[in-house]
Amino acid sequence: MPIKPITDLSIGGRRLFVRVDFNVPLTPAGGVADDTRIRESLPTIKYAIEHGARLVLASHLGRPKGKPDPKFSLMPVAARLAELLGADVALTDEPVGDGARKVVADLRDGGVALLENLRFTPAEEANDETFARGLASYADVYVNDAFGTAHRAHASTVGMTKFVSEKGMGLLMEREVKFLGKLLGEVDRPFVAIIGGAKVSDKIGVLENLLQRVDQILIGGAMANTFLKAKGGHLGRSLVEEDKLALARSFLRKADAAEVDVLLPRDLVAAAGIKSESGRVVSAMEVPEDLAALDIGPETARGFGDAISRAKTILWNGPMGVFESDPFAGGTIAVAKAVATSGALSVVGGGDSVAAVHKAGVADKITHISTGGGASLELLEGKKLPGLAALES
């Protein structure tokens, strides 16, 4: 069954439970350091308020080890959300229980309550049925708008949906499904995938699934080192997954068989370590013994840029190097700018890639920035996400 969007659900005067992703970074003083995820949920929240729902929001925050921890309270999130909405947001003292039940019962049409951190109990991640029923008791209608947690079968993403008769997806989730779904269907070609990050093992499922869909794959980041060594390169002190060399060779053979062009770095920026103030450009196949590759080099950046400029559809997941450090950010920034000026339909996913397009100042030129790193990867691997499957039945 197709998943209903929130716009197709009857929510006026009803208790609407929305699973949001408010897992935001906090400042040392206990404020919200980056409210991007809160802002991304605003269209769904405002739609619910405008249509007279009695809104119950739920999220996790951090890793509080299954018990209440003041450091992980959603209190600063509730305060920031109230500022953004210009309206009161009632925070419960616990995810489920008498206190939470009273707050929800007191809601009026257009009112907003936020349950305290779902992970203040181990029952959330364990998908415990009693806890799931407790959450469902606050809901006449259920909506999931937290794509970043859709690959987790937890009580708030899967378990409680069995006990709520009406369910669907929020506006943010709908946008994620729309654009990532496009990449799994017919697309304008050439379709270029840019895959970076640290480990081949994290991305091999996506890489292999993409072989059936893309025309070209550009591989950067530390994972490129493993592919380069698999082809006979000398990588010095660079991060290499020695136990994945055979996997890398197997993938390159499959790419040849599928007639998919795989571009690996031709040059790299290498240094003694990530705290070095500068690096030097070296051949990708000959990194000096005392140096580690920390970014793609300028020749590679130009070659990747040329491939990107010809693309009509682009997927980017993973940085080209240690972009958090300015001396090794050049390759990732160059790729971000190339994607932004390509004119292609572009989808960027994964926390580091998203940070990179913001750092490069080109986020507004990207067609879609995905909010879910792990979820987007699993979807692109061809896996069914539990949080989405739960909305179909």
Can you describe this structure?
This protein is of the alpha/beta class and 393 residues long. It has two domains: 6-172, 3-Layer(aba) Sandwich (Rossmann fold), CATH 3.40.50.1260; 179-380, Phosphoglycerate kinase, N-terminal domain (Rossmann fold, 3-Layer(aba) Sandwich). The chain is built from 13 helices and 15 strands. It has helices spanning 36-50, 75-85, 98-105, 129-136, 171-183, 200-210, 222-230, 245-257, 298-310, 330-340, 351-359, 373-380, 386-392, and strands at residues 15-19, 54-58, 90-91, 112-114, 141-144, 166-169, 191-195, 216-219, 261-263, 267-271, 280-283, 292-296, 313-317, 345-349, 368-369. Strands 3-4-2-1-5-6 form a six-stranded parallel beta sheet, with helices on both faces. The protein has a six-stranded parallel beta sheet with strand order 9-8-7-13-14-15, sandwiched between helices. A three-stranded antiparallel beta sheet has the order 11-10-12. Helix 1 crosses helix 2 and helix 6 runs parallel beside helix 8 (245-257). 52% of the residues are buried.
